[in-house]
């Protein structure tokens, strides 16, 4: 059996930054450091940080007054910052800068008097954070597109969740453009999502079956599975090597492997090892060298900090 490994895969710059923020907060303030929402959507990452002293909560109300809290990479609505202030919490914001950019766009368009459509998934943490920034309507690109009953001449601005399927979003945007010809369209799907979807397409062309390593609740991992399937191969989203049992791998000669933006490389290595392939071939589609600066309070302490992707 041959394994094809997609590159780029695994951690994006926003995830590296968010994990570093929790680590640095633990070093600076000592445990416990609360984390509102899973810092990134991967249980291995969350459990590893919890073993060091972080405590994950879903709501600011669960955090004892005067504690330290890190807000997750997905972004948070202003309401959460307000609640944190009322409880006397020290907030360290690990929102990915590319999500913050979408928040800024939303507030800008609202100020300019534009109606906003957000293409994204109901209930996803990033969508909740973005929808809190200004009044907007949500469009789920996976469903039949239902647009608000606004006049076609309405000034409309379109934003997108950062982790959507590039193809499905393009279709949704086309429908929006047909209804609102003057719509201002912002494609906010991030570089990491885009690059991994290009990579999984190439992988699908070479493989009989694709394994996406990552968590079920990770939007960008789920989209990688969808893209592989849309390109004609069976694809499975698994947490790691323990999930290989029960997969239809008997007789499969070419297995493609990719991981989402929140998946540690260690989990990929464990899957490859468990498969015991005769050959491993890397399929490269793009080089990534993006890094994001840390929040101001940690910038001096971490200039020489380089995260090893095999660890977290
Ligand atoms: S997937 Fe994209 S938007 Fe999300 S944390 Fe990574 S770089 Fe930022």
Descriptive account of the structure:
The protein is 36% helix and 19% strand. Helix 4 runs parallel beside helix 5 (125-131) and helix 7 packs parallel to helix 8. The strands form 3 sheets. The chain has a 5-stranded parallel beta sheet with strand order 11-10-12-1-13. It has helices spanning 13-29, 43-52, 78-86, 97-111, 125-131, 166-179, 191-206, 219-230, 265-275, and strands spanning 2-7, 33-36, 54-57, 68-71, 90-93, 115-119, 137-139, 156-160, 184-185, 209-213, 235-238, 254-259, 279-284. It has 312 residues and is an alpha/beta fold. It has 9 helices and 13 strands. The chain has 3 domains: 2-11 and 191-284, Cobalt-precorrin-4 Transmethylase, domain 1; 13-97 and 292-302, Rossmann fold, CATH 3.40.50; 113-185, 3-Layer(aba) Sandwich (Cobalt-precorrin-4 Transmethylase, domain 1), CATH 3.40.1010.20. The model has no long low-confidence stretch (mean pLDDT 95). It starts with a strand and ends in a 28-residue tail after the last strand. Iron/sulfur cluster binds at residues 12-15, 73, 96, 98-99, 162-163, 190, 192-193, 220, 261.
How many DSSP E strands?
A: 13
Structural class: alpha/beta
Return the average pLDDT rounded to an integer.
95
**Can you tell me the overall shape?**
flat
Alpha carbon gyration radius: 20 Å
According to CATH, the fold-level topology of the largest domain is Cobalt-precorrin-4 Transmethylase, domain 1
Main sheet attributes: strand count, strand direction, barrel closure: 5 strands, parallel
Text of the CATH class of the largest domain = Alpha Beta
Distance between the termini: 30 Å
